[in-house]
Amino acid sequence: MRVHVVHANNRALYLDEIEAMHRHRYEVFVNERGWRALESPDHLDIDEFDAGDATYLIALSDAGAVVGSGRFIPSWRPNMLATLFPEYCRDAVPVAPDIWEWTRHATPGRAHGKDFNLRVQLVLNIAVLEFARLRGIGAFIGILETNLLPYTSELGWRSLPLGEPHHYGEGVAVAIKSAVRAGHLERLRAFAGVEGSVSIEAPGFDPVRGRIARRWLEVAASLPDADLARFASQDFPPLLSGAFR
């Protein structure tokens, strides 16, 4: 299982995976959790924040299926908390260069066993912390259902409520800010038995670079965990410089 970092510069490499991610989100949020406000005849969960500012972390199984994802938007760009739910915050919605919003966190769901769900959850959270380290992110903000707060704590997050819980259509949620703490990434990797990075980030797209990068991504995704670090540490052709850093 690998987690691919997908953003405006490399999105053209992932058109199929992005559509599959939106279908997976619909299955999780609408069909399983009952978020009827998101119902759509095309069975895709897409909103106004699935735009150019969004970066996705998409977990792909060894067979290439989407099994989890998360959406990340800089706090200084239009985002869900600031635009739709500012009243969830007692004070102003936090904005800073090192704060990003984290929403639409989706894991496999009821169709998969508990062990597989836990594995995907661990790998996704490791990828989030890797992403934070590479981007210089110091904290994430977002909206979380209150019943999930103990679970996030078990994964090592220390979430600060930004206001009082609010009722919405399908439950109770609270705005939170979760700091990226020193040692969290290493502790979570150790707990999950993971050595090295779980993330893959392709370079920006152009016709030649894109085709080459896509093939190298497929090679990387097929490697066992123990081999990926060695693969990522080698010298790449100039067209791929930065793809696995």
List the helices and strands and how they pair.
Blueprint lengths: L1 E5 L8 H18 L22 E6 L5 E9 L5 H5 L14 E8 L7 H22 L3 E7 L3 H6 L4 E3 L4 E3 L2 E9 L4 H9 L6 E3 L5 H15 L3 H9 L12
Parallel strand pairs: 1-9, 4-5
Antiparallel strand pairs: 1-2, 2-3, 3-4, 5-8, 6-8, 7-8
Give the terminus-to-terminus CA distance: 18 Å
Q: Count the DSSP helices.
A: 7
- Would you identify the regions where 5 or more consecutive residues have pLDDT less than 50? 236-245
Strand segment count: 9
Overview of this protein structure:
This protein has 245 residues and is α+β, with helices and mostly antiparallel strands. Strands 1, 2, 3, 4, 5, 6, 7, 8 and 9 form a nine-stranded mixed beta sheet that branches. The chain is globular, with a radius of gyration of 18 Å. Residues 236-245 have low confidence and may be disordered. The protein contains seven helices and nine strands; from the N terminus they run βαββαβαβαβββαβαα. The chain has one domain: Aminopeptidase (3-Layer(aba) Sandwich), CATH 3.40.630. Helix 3 (114-135) runs antiparallel to helix 5 (184-192). The longest helix is centred in the middle third of the chain and has 22 residues, at 114-135. It has helices at residues 15-32, 80-84, 114-135, 149-154, 184-192, 207-221, 225-233, and strands spanning 2-6, 55-60, 66-74, 99-106, 139-145, 159-161, 166-168, 171-179, 199-201. Helix content is 34%, strand content 22%.
